[in-house]
Write a structure and sequence with these properties.
With 193 residues, the chain is of the alpha+beta class. 27% of the residues lie in helices and 21% in strands. It contains one helix and nine strands. The radius of gyration is 23 Å and the shape is elongated.
Length: 193
């Protein structure tokens, strides 16, 4: 009985395995890139949706007006912008003070700040001329609504149905309802706009 069998693989088998893996990686790279770009759109839209929900909840909790505003940057040089992918929830105007620590007493009385660099660096926001949305103590949108905030990713291509990106929209109704939807879906689809 011969027990001198070798375990493992030959160099040729290893090279064939590496070539097959390389082919699979080359074929999967475009799909992975599209998935990454689309996930940045979704991350940004979800962050905006969550920020709006926070502003509304804080307005009801504090029984006062709370602001959700898009800003150019989260530094001390920030300014309101309807195309800013960064946002601030505060009680006062944060322009020029977006880097202030959250506080209930010190102006601009910031509740939360979110930078576009947090998971959605390539996402582009277009709020259609609305840079500020305010909610009153009953949770109704008293300024800036109705609003349709479109989130795209120009580095990944055009939005569906004509392109590969799954772009998103966050809507704010005058009554304060906040909804995230997909503008490429049919009107009767619950996920459509």
């Amino acid at each position: 009985m011969n027990l001198n069998r070798q375990a493992g693989m030959s160099l040729i088998e290893l090279m064939i395995g590496i070539v097959v893996l390389g082919i699979l990686l080359v074929l999967g790279a475009p799909t992975f890139s599209r998935w990454t770009q689309s996930s940045q759109i979704r991350n940004s839209a979800e962050a905006i949706h969550n920020g709006l929900m926070l502003a509304r909840a804080e307005a009801v909790r504090r029984n006062t007006t709370v602001r959700f505003q898009f800003v150019t940057t989260t530094t001390g040089a920030c300014a309101l912008s309807d195309t800013g992918a960064n946002w601030v929830v505060s009680l006062d105007n944060p322009a020029g003070a977006c880097d202030a620590a959250p506080s209930d007493n010190v102006a601009p009385r910031i509740v939360q700040v979110r930078s576009a660099a947090e998971g959605s660096r390539n996402a582009a926001v277009n709020a259609g001329g609305v840079s500020l949305i305010t909610f009153n103590g009953t949770g109704q949108a008293t300024g800036g609504a109705p609003a349709a905030i479109n989130v795209t990713n120009p580095t990944g291509g055009a939005c569906a149905p004509g392109g590969p990106m799954r772009c998103m929209r966050v809507t704010v109704a005058a009554g304060g309802q906040i909804r995230m939807c997909d503008p490429a879906r049919a009107a009767g689809d619950p996920q459509g706009c």
